[in-house]
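Propose amino acids for all 406 sites.
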């Protein structure tokens, strides 16, 4: 009993004073993300993907079933899907249609008006910076098991998109879709002529890169460690014409009503913070505990109650990130090793062999589908048998894109 009282007093001493500012004015916190609320919004991505797949000649309902999704996800506002299931759907669809930029097509189909209460928050924010911070702190179409982080250095702003859910797949396709939707959002706020300075994508370049230039109207760098949009930081101060503060308050109230019933597990919050390790400074256990407003021992106990530990989650994040970069990019092993914080490539190889039972080079070869292993520019789907014939040719895919956006 005395030990428990001592720990309770330690928790009270470590817990920071409550933030009295309105929730919309606070910096983003991992606790702002609520699992069920995410899923409600992620269904819009699945329905958009199904619409694109249908236009490319594929069977979206059949692909949903193959990916382990509810067939009702093909409808607007239909069943929600997890990050991993959406990734499987995009990979299956890209392989079946031979459309290497499927994520881009899906993302550019999602407009600001499709984002529900979060869209209303964005539309009625005071400045573009306030609007983009809504993407950080509130759930929207692409943030089921993924998150957004805005970083500013002098005159350059970078808006990062990164997955943190265990088992995330097709990260490259999801990333390009999320960035396309974000560009749609900024253009809706500032004008259709806006273009970013540059885009970074954590995937190998597909055969056809023209569609990226045609939509983004900016250079796109493939084979990157993470997904990000770069733009001048002065954009963040630009006021949003027509913003309505009363509509902003109504949307914020609606979001709180939806999200309050589903607090996230602490392991999910930890995964999100640790995934930022590759964007910001490394997080120690003590720093994470302080950010989550709990004592370090309390964090450990709560993680144990969920069947995991700080060390286990940290290792899983590194393993998941390594697998994604090996599968989706052509990055050299030395570069991946440095990205993951290893002192040398040999240390990374040793750790990866311990995690997976094989070396990174062998894993990279075996994880890719036999038909695409020789050409890493195509999306790959490991351990899932495509079975059926291709539903549409790459020529069909390219024709549909140019017809839609001329």
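Proposal:
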């Amino acid at each position: 009993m005395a030990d428990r009282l001592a720990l309770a007093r330690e928790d009270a001493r470590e817990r920071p004073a409550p933030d009295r500012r309105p929730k919309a004015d606070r910096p983003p916190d991992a606790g702002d993300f609520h699992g069920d609320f995410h899923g409600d919004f992620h269904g819009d991505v699945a329905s958009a993907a199904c619409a694109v797949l249908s236009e490319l000649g594929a069977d979206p309902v059949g692909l949903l079933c193959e990916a382990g999704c509810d067939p009702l996800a093909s409808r607007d506002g239909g069943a929600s899907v997890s990050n991993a299931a959406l990734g499987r759907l995009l990979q299956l669809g890209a392989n079946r249609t031979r459309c290497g930029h499927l994520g881009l097509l899906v993302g550019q189909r999602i407009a600001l008006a499709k984002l529900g209460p979060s869209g209303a928050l964005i539309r009625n924010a005071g400045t573009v910076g306030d609007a983009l911070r809504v993407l950080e702190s509130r759930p929207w179409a692409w943030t089921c098991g993924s998150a957004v982080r805005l970083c500013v250095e002098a005159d350059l702003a970078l808006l990062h998109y990164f997955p943190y859910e265990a088992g995330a797949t097709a990260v490259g396709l999801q990333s390009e879709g999320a960035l396309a939707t974000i560009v749609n959002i900024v253009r809706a706020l500032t004008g259709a002529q806006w273009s970013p300075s540059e885009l970074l994508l954590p995937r190998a370049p597909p055969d056809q890169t023209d569609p990226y230039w045609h939509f983004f109207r900016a250079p796109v760098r493939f084979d990157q460690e993470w997904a990000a949009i770069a733009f001048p930081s002065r954009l963040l101060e630009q006021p949003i014409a027509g913003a309505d503060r009363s509509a902003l308050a109504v949307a914020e109230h609606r979001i709180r009503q939806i999200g309050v019933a589903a607090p996230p597990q602490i392991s999910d919050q930890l995964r999100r913070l640790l995934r930022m390790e590759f964007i910001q400074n490394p997080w120690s256990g003590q720093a994470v505990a302080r950010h989550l407003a709990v004592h370090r021992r309390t964090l450990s106990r709560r993680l144990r109650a969920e069947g995991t530990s700080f060390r286990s989650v940290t290792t899983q994040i590194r393993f998941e990130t390594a697998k994604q970069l090996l599968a989706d990019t052509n990055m050299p092993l030395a570069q991946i090793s440095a990205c993951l914080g290893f002192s040398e490539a040999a240390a990374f190889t040793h750790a990866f062999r311990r995690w997976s039972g094989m070396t990174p080079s062998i894993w990279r070869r075996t994880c890719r589908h036999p038909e695409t292993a020789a050409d890493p520019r195509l999306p790959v789907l490991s351990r899932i048998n495509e079975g059926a014939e291709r539903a549409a040719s790459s020529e069909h895919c390219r024709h549909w894109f140019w017809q839609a956006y001329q």
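Confidence is low (pLDDT under 50) at residues 1-41, 370-406. Residues 27-260 form a domain with the H-NOX domain fold (CATH 3.90.1520).
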